[in-house]
Amino acid sequence: MPGLVGFTDRSKKHDTSMLSHMRNLLKYFDWYIDSELYSDGIVNASQTHLGIINKTSAPHHMGNRYSIWIEGEFYNQEELKAKYKVISATDNELFLNIYNMTKSFDFLKDIDGYYTAVLYDNQNKFVYLITDRYGFKPFYWGLIKKNLVWSSELKGFLGHRDFKCVIDKIAVEEFFDFGHQLENRTWFESIELVPPSTVIAFDIDKSQVTIKNYWSWSDIQFVKEPIDEVQIAEELGRLFKQSVEHRATKNERIGISLSGGLDSRALLAAIPEIHTPLHALTFGKKNCDDIIIAKKISTIKGAYHHVLDLNSRDWIDHRINGIWRSDGSISLLHMHGSKFCDKYNSYMDFSLNGFAGDLVCGGSYLNPNSFETKITHDIVRNKTNCRKDSFEFNNWYRINKTDPYFVNNRVRRFTNSGLIILSKNIENRIPFFDNNIVEFIYSIPDKHRYNSNIYNKMLMRTFPDYFKTIPWQATGCPISYSKQRVKIVNLKNRIIKQLKRLAYPFNHKERNIKNYTDYPTWLREDSARSFLRELLNSKNAIYPEYIDPKKILGYLQDHMNANTDRHNELCQALTFEIWLQQIFNNRFRE
What residues does the Glutamine amidotransferase type-2 domain cover (predicted)? Predict the structure, then answer.
């Protein structure tokens, strides 16, 4: 990241100054590397990036016919070279060599990568927009006056002179109902995300779009019962270690965001010992459980552990630019790490992230009533508490599993936003979405994944030193404990706390062992309270054009008077207003 921009121009109306303006909207630092402003009069494209991966010049050309721009990287280059019998030094070259040889995009399903790409066929006058299997690296597109326009960030479209910025009212509803937009919808009418596993083909002469998937969840082959859980756990452990090794190669500055959870801990344990020094960063309130647990784990690994303090003083300030960096995709409430992006820069070039490991391996979104069941609106409503049927499920969901919906929506549109913010400073890698892991874990019956059954077995067998005795932040107990033992320990802790309250009513200060923040309280303190009131009460506020201001101001009054907790709704409204000001009034931009 940050990414790709470009447009077709059949009438040759625009010049590269507009392309440069679009690209500059994706730039957050002067040290970014800019690719050439490519133009042949019809296709205009460029790229800006961090200069960490794919350092060769872009575009990469093959003869006078093909030009390609890739944002991101492949992790199985050697396997691809062997299968297709090609010799290539870079991902760009590898892509074009295989495509030129096969004259098909079928090979895309074999790429294990985290990337987006633009391919221009100058001979046939086609532009292709391409996403990887899971679509976590954002890529937006739209048709503007019969021309194709693309950008890795939504804000890039603001640089196109023919673009009319109109807010999609359904997108507003989804943001306040779900906390994010669904599927491929964006804030802007007529602009969408390129779906996962997709090739969008644009015929320049006919101004015609064709959209095709090259992979879907239904390609996964199920294994039948009976299965041996020990063998499954061992194989999952092998694949997991292999995935991390592919994403943590020698001589790279690798680091990790480490919490008190399971997923980031597993990544730290799996990082090859050749990576020294290794830095682990944990943010939270002083002495919260996440920090205490992460420190213990870092000591076992021999990693340098850094505490990033979250407090009430300036928590909201750094999240304003987080809204700009994330295209307003989530509430600033969830931008916990946005304050520390520069810290990550100083310790690492690549961050391994436990991104959605609890969903993939732990089955956190599974329900026993819907094992081996295709997603339905009832299942979505039960999990999200939203009563609306927002869209029809397409071929992406043609599999008897419910997880693809949550991967494509909750993970891609919500969880992913943290990576998007951090990606302006460093590169991210997400080992739980290795192709081999996904195909393997979703081939087994849901009941074995439910309640982290197989996942916990794998963690205990593969990394016992990290899991046998060290607590999990969610329960306060190691995952080696039985459910009954966890209940007993928690009951004992509650009794001890109550006794301390009775014995020392004035001196006892109860420590919040779960939360690493206290947003309801922080929102009532002076700086945040003043900022909220100033922005939401302003006569120049834009949000009243889209949502009921009386309701929001009522929430504001009730929360500040401590009548009720409305911190979630207020942070959503504040995020929305700041994003609107950034779009229409150029305020609050970095």
Answer: 1-205
Mean pLDDT of all residues in 543-568: 94
Structure tokens at 21: 């303006």
Longest dimension (CA), the chain: 83
Neighbours of 371 (CB within 10 A): 17
Give the DSSP per-residue string, 65-118: TEEEEEEEEES-HHHHHHHHT---SSHHHHHHHHHHHHSSSGGGGG--EEEEEE
Residue 226: CB atoms within 10 A of its CB come to 5
Number of helices and strands (H, E) in the chain?
A: 22, 18
The answer to whether 91 is a known ligand-binding residue is yes
Specify the pLDDT at position 396.
Answer: 75
Helix/strand/coil percentages in the chain, nearest 5: 45, 15, 40
| pLDDT of amino acid 547 | 96
DSSP assignment letter at 313: S
Could you give the domains of the chain? Answer: 2-215 (3.60.20.10), 221-476 (3.40.50.620), 519-584 (no CATH)
Rounded alpha-carbon distances, angstroms, from residue 347 to 104, 106, 268, 340, 417 = 41, 39, 15, 11, 21
Average of pLDDT values for 354-371? Answer: 93
- Rounded CA-CA distance 340/264 in Å is 18
